[in-house]
Amino acid sequence: MAAHRQFEELARQLSAIGAVKREMGRILPQDCPPASAGVLTLLDRHGEMRMSQLAELLAIDMSVTSRHVAHVAERGWIEREPDPADKRSRLLRLTPSGREVLEELSARYTATLARYLNDWSDADVGHLNELLARLRTSFGDCRPRAHHDSTTRTPAE
Amino acid sequence: MAAHRQFEELARQLSAIGAVKREMGRILPQDCPPASAGVLTLLDRHGEMRMSQLAELLAIDMSVTSRHVAHVAERGWIEREPDPADKRSRLLRLTPSGREVLEELSARYTATLARYLNDWSDADVGHLNELLARLRTSFGDCRPRAHHDSTTRTPAE
DNA sequence: TATTGTTATACTCTATAACTATA
DNA sequence: TATAGTTATAGAGTATAACAATA
């Protein structure tokens, strides 16, 4: 197990990494906020899925997911078909238009990272990716749980 | 330079790491949102400073910094004294009460990370810290710049 | 005239709760 | 009764612009 000091430093790094996330968000195309980019990316990687599955992958509440999905659906980037197996559910699927947006996203993301990280080796980026993935796994299901005790916050961010 | 594929993956990891940040935010004490914790932590690490310096360290606009600082000042966690060298500026300084909050923050952060990352070695956490610090350095000054072109967003997050 | 900091406004993101429709 | 999804409401975070005070 790691030292107290390392944990304090990690808390600080996590707090500060928001600046990088914001910078990445700034390069997105018009009408495509970071949340929309996340929805499209996950549908591309995992294929057709239901709202609840998407919310699980995004690690956010389904109510929030619903709005993000509505945003991309209104722009024609995804389709929402009723699930024949359960009429309460809707199956989400990328449209050709959505795939075009994804192409643009990919181009902008990689161009931006290639610019900022021009002195990073492939192994460096790979290692960071692995550690971030492991960090998320270690935190497991981070979505809000019911019954918080009254001494802790239940914030929004 | 790293491969296209690695950059796409990093973009995805950065997008998803928000879940971990939110979980860390949930364990903060009442009346102490993540932004307040950030202000207190930076004042502790770097000592007394001006608004503009704090905004620089937080990598957010000074207008936002002003509000975060007001929040912690209203709770008596910092003092704001006029800078004798420049009457436009105010020097920010932790109070004993602010240091007590910091003690609590440190305890909660480390306890939470120790729980989630119980199978991480000291070297693992250290390596992640190094890579995150390097990532932030590579992005340099990520705060918003004037004169964006019209094809990119200028979001809030 | 330029800079430091504050305030007003708007937008993004998220959580909780109430609601509808279906299982 | 329980579950999938939507909508309304509230709160946190940030950016831009306008403003006040000082350099």
From TrEMBL, chains A, B:
Q: Which SUPFAM superfamilies match?
A: Winged helix' DNA-binding domain
Q: Which domain of life is it from?
A: Bacteria
InterPro entries xref list: HTH_MarR-typ (IPR000835), MarR/SlyA-like (IPR039422), WH-like_DNA-bd_sf (IPR036388), WH_DNA-bd_sf (IPR036390)
Gene3D superfamilies hit by this protein: Winged helix-like DNA-binding domain superfamily/Winged helix DNA-binding domain
Checking PROSITE patterns in the record gives: HTH_MARR_2
Q: Where is the HTH marR-type domain?
A: 1-137
Q: Which chain regions cross the lipid bilayer?
A: none
Protein name in the entry = MarR family transcriptional regulator
